[in-house]
Specification:
Strand content: 25-35%
Structural class: alpha/beta
Number of strands: 12
Helix content: 10-25%
Largest sheet: 10 strands, mixed
Radius of gyration: 14 Å
Order of helices and strands: HEEEHEEHEHEEEEEE
Length: 160
């Protein structure tokens, strides 16, 4: 897969939202895209684990963790499950852990930072609801494109 988000903006600006959040790259895939699935949770990764252990079919999971830096919403075991189940990437409005291992996985992972602390595992939150951060509305079924420059979202799959 080759595309540049800057080129997508040049060609499809009227159709795209560009995320203003300055995420860090943690995954082994630096460029990734896919249809969006979403989770809204706060300091609890039970739903993240459950969803990433289901068939991904090339999708990107967008997790709105409420900007919390207190505990990781994804680590190496959950990310490995995502790879094994065919997910393309993760965008986490929160933090991850096990960053050295994340960098070895064939998975796009963007997050605010890292924290070794585990999160709760109760499964509290919502799945496949619209979430918003960084000036972007992430809606289930829309398309996300991510590279070194940032993240853009379109209502349809773009020719890349």
């Amino acid at each position: 897969m080759t595309f540049a988000t800057a080129d997508l903006i040049d060609d499809f600006e009227a159709e795209l939202q560009s995320c203003e959040t300055q995420f860090r790259q943690f995954g082994g895939l630096q460029v990734f895209s896919g249809r969006i699935s979403t989770i809204r949770c706060f300091r609890d990764n039970g739903l993240v684990k459950k969803i990433l252990n289901s068939p991904g079919e090339g999708r990107v999971l967008v997790v709105d963790g409420g900007d919390s830096l207190a505990s990781a919403l994804c680590g190496d075991l959950i990310a490995k499950a995502a790879v094994d189940n065919g997910w393309s990437g993760l965008v986490i409005n929160g933090v991850v852990r096990d960053t050295v291992t994340l960098a070895t996985l064939r998975l796009g992972v963007k997050a605010l930072g890292s924290n070794p602390k585990k999160s709760a595992k109760d499964g509290a939150g919502e799945v496949d609801v619209p979430v918003s951060f960084g000036g972007v509305d992430f809606r289930p079924g829309a398309w996300l494109y991510s590279d070194h420059d940032g993240i853009v979202v379109a209502d349809r799959e773009l020719p890349v």
